[in-house]
From TrEMBL, chains A, B:
It holds the Pfam family PDH_C. Its EC number is 1.3.1.12. PROSITE patterns: PDH_ADH (PS51176). InterPro entries: 6-PGluconate_DH-like_C_sf, NAD(P)-bd_dom_sf, PDH_C, PDH_N, Preph/Arog_dehydrog, Prephen_DH. Keywords: Amino-acid biosynthesis, Aromatic amino acid biosynthesis, NAD, Oxidoreductase, Tyrosine biosynthesis. Belongs to the prephenate/arogenate dehydrogenase family. This is prephenate dehydrogenase. The keyword tRNA processing does not apply. SUPFAM superfamilies: 6-phosphogluconate dehydrogenase C-terminal domain-like, NAD(P)-binding Rossmann-fold domains. It comes from Methylophaga nitratireducenticrescens. It comes from the Bacteria.
Amino acid sequence: MIKHLAIIGVGLIGGSLALALKKAGLVEQVTGYSRSQAAREEALALGIIDNTAESLAEAVSDADMVFVAVPMGAMQTVFEQIAPHLKPQTIVTDGGSAKQQVIDAARQALGNKFDQFVPGHPIAGTEKSGPSAAFSELYQQHRVVLTPVAETNKSALVRVRQMWQQAGADVFEMEVEHHDVVLAATSHLPHVLAFNLVGMLAQREDCDEVLRYAAGGFRDFSRIASSDAVMWRDICLGNRSAILELLQQYRSGLDKIEQAIRQDDGDYLIDIFGRAKRARDTRFADPDLKDNSEV
Amino acid sequence: MIKHLAIIGVGLIGGSLALALKKAGLVEQVTGYSRSQAAREEALALGIIDNTAESLAEAVSDADMVFVAVPMGAMQTVFEQIAPHLKPQTIVTDGGSAKQQVIDAARQALGNKFDQFVPGHPIAGTEKSGPSAAFSELYQQHRVVLTPVAETNKSALVRVRQMWQQAGADVFEMEVEHHDVVLAATSHLPHVLAFNLVGMLAQREDCDEVLRYAAGGFRDFSRIASSDAVMWRDICLGNRSAILELLQQYRSGLDKIEQAIRQDDGDYLIDIFGRAKRARDTRFADPDLKDNSEV
């Protein structure tokens, strides 16, 4: 049971955690803060939070648990502003999609309270955002990865793990660097690829007419290009080195496919396409993954 | 009403047309041919076809309408083998995803019967293939593009149009070259991008573990990488010039994103990602497209 939860950022990620814990009856009071007054009021009206705070200081000063669910580029500022107002027993955790950058920011901003911080990443979401996108089932049977570091307080880690389990998630621990590479491969790079395709088509004069002939394959492929631009700018810059490395590999793969098409090398294409098909068919036959739906 | 329909290739595309026309009571007899005896027997057992042919000659010799639904690399051979056995009034149409190559093959192989050929492309499908994947509703509210050329017999064009409408499709006509560019942009390039990503991840030693953390966004993005490798080899080689041109544009876009990430140019990323999001949100709010589902 959490007595007082503070949600910094009342959108899909923060709002859905609040709703899940409220529905389970495992939180007494939820205070929400957002830079946007409209978002605060919307979250209040939707019953996501019980009261709004006018400042970060006010939001966290009485909280037992603080969940920071803002775009990664805003995390350091949030940490700096809440640091002086955290009680010794207050736990802070976050939902950032790349962990090294958030950990660096927290270490710098929280100073001697850094041990109260538990880095986390709920691997769940949709391409929608804002309070109205939040729903209590978002985390059910989804994975939440925690990436504690040497300083992380062990009992804080246990409490954050419990909180996510109570919200319905399967909680795993992972090394920071490994997390950042895995997520770059399965989430960050695919977003860049989809944004790039749709962005390129959007620049065509005949975009509307072209997309009229796009069908389900394109729609699924490009769904993640509907994701929030600020959030994804921050992720790209925040997980720069892992993303750049994978992007290099990806481009080298594209080079080879391009060369094969140019040289009429059908065997190479069959080899690559077949390998991809087998990997995907095998891996996603796993029922375990069927209901996952991160953006 | 079609008296005798011959389906060359009894998989998802050919089989679904046969099932749709049968269900509508608009075909008297369907003969199916596949190189694979197992596929022929499966199609017969599933009621997709009424009888099987042992050869292409046998399949088409009594047909009024011939639908060629084989991978594009096999089309020329099929055209060559059926040409001597087509009656003057027999209409031939196809389901190839790139039209110029099929038209060139048909022109060469059909000779003075080329006017009996109506080039077509049903923009529908799933990532599955084979007779068991066929279903009668596949084409309902999906687009079928016909790309007639100067020689195409006008009444043959009308009959093919009617056939697809009877199968539930919305039929459009398009210039060959325009079709090939539009489909390269919305279908062929996305397939290459998805195959390349999944193929790259499949080569990692930690592939299984990495994909364990992949969620819905990745699954949707990569669904088209489950498509048939032979079919997509043929499309890549068959629509080479349009695909290579778009691939160049795509790579140049990736270059710019990579540079922006490297140089911490968040404004550029916001610009591209935001443009993509707006284009997709606007275009796919169109209810018209909601039920389309080509691979």
